[in-house]
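User: Could you write out the 3D structure of this protein bound to zinc ion? I've included everything you need below.
Assistant: Certainly. Input first, then the structure.
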Amino acid sequence: MLQGRPDGRTEPGDQMRTHSGPDSARDGGLVTVARAGHVLTMGPKGDIADGAVAFDGADGLIRAVGGHSTVRAAFPEASTVGDSRDVLVPGLVNAHDHLSEGLISGIGETMSLYEWQQRLIRPVGPHLTREMARAGTLLKGAEMIRSGITCVNDMFVHANPGSLASLGVADGLEEIGLGGVICFGAHDLPDPLPMSALLEEHEALSERLSQSENVGFRLGIATIHAQTNQLFDASVKLAARHGWKVHTHLAEVREEITEARLAYGTNTLGRGVSAGLLDLDVIFAHCIWVNEPDIDVLTRHASSIVHNPLANMILASGVCPVPRLRAAGIPVALGTDGAGSNDSHDMLQVMKCASLVQKLHHLDPLALTARDVITMATIEGARALRIDDRLGSLEVGKQADVVRFAGDGVRLAYVHDPYQQLVFCAGPDDVADVWVAGRHVLANRRLTTVDEAAVVSEARRLAAELVRLADLGQLSAMA
Ligand SMILES: [Zn+2]
């Protein structure tokens, strides 16, 4: 399951072997018991003191959740990982990402969104290849696993028609053992691109992912105002015809609203309603510049939202009204956003900043608590992506996406409140073990699925190549 590349195809990137060998991550059919002093199930069982989770290495499903002694007695032959000092949580859900930016972190912090798109994203897009997509995905995938992420909702954005570069994300996620959902964020503005090639990439990515065990597909619309009427209508119709769910951005910056009003006489959400987009199952990234009528529309159409606090702060985009949106009953997930706009893939930073920015903005320490943001990063994130039937909580029968925070380090030496300890104190070094669908992808702080040094080396080589091809010399010290 999810070992290497199940379709058996070879890619240009295969010249650099990043596998660490056979599937050492899957414990051939044996049951594992993960134990902790605090098990935060994020499900009906709530928090369990001195608890454990048992899961099956063969089918990747959770077999038992409860007190350690009870679970241990039910599976006496199982191997045990962890002890009473640790904290267990469900795998974290990164609900908005752009792995197309996997090779351009750490550039352009002084730019606002439109300038950043013009000076960085637009030059890079035509040069992205499937090989680069795979390399960037492996690099950021390693960073994600190391912060407890087990599932990522990605939108790959490029302007390289016919390259099928987005398929490289599928290659990379499967290779490193992450689950997720991938879309191709099509756009044909400001630079015209052939519509047939854009629509064909949705179909090709869907076909590629139909062979994947743990990575699903959505149709991507880069942004509502980055598509011509022709492409926007065709995209909505294509998604409706196939029954595909959709991933897009909405109301990230104020300029978007102004431009839309001038162009269409309504905001981008209004354009989406007119085109039938809101009749589909859509997850919207950002939703910062939304007013009460917009929130009413989003609520009535059962939409989902992803909040990306790091990218919002780096680009100075604004403060998402997270408490208001959640109070309206809209699921609000958390995302890192792309490697170019965040520029980290550390989900612990995302959770901490999500809470802090709301506390400060509202001058209210209750505005968004540690428990709120762990909920958003687990079960609420899974609900936003409509995968909460199998992910987001530690429950019998669900997929064994499990993260162990080890209590052997300075940050978790004692635990007064496990939620506050994880959100405000912990760092990636405290993430000791990660299982994705029962597969042990991080074992005692070591990645088992890839050769990490080879991943880093390959990413460095391709990042330099991308700087040269996209002529980023004025922005990058790698030129
Ligand atoms: Zn984004």
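Residues 92-384 form a domain with the TIM Barrel fold (CATH 3.20.20.140).
User: Perfect, thank you.
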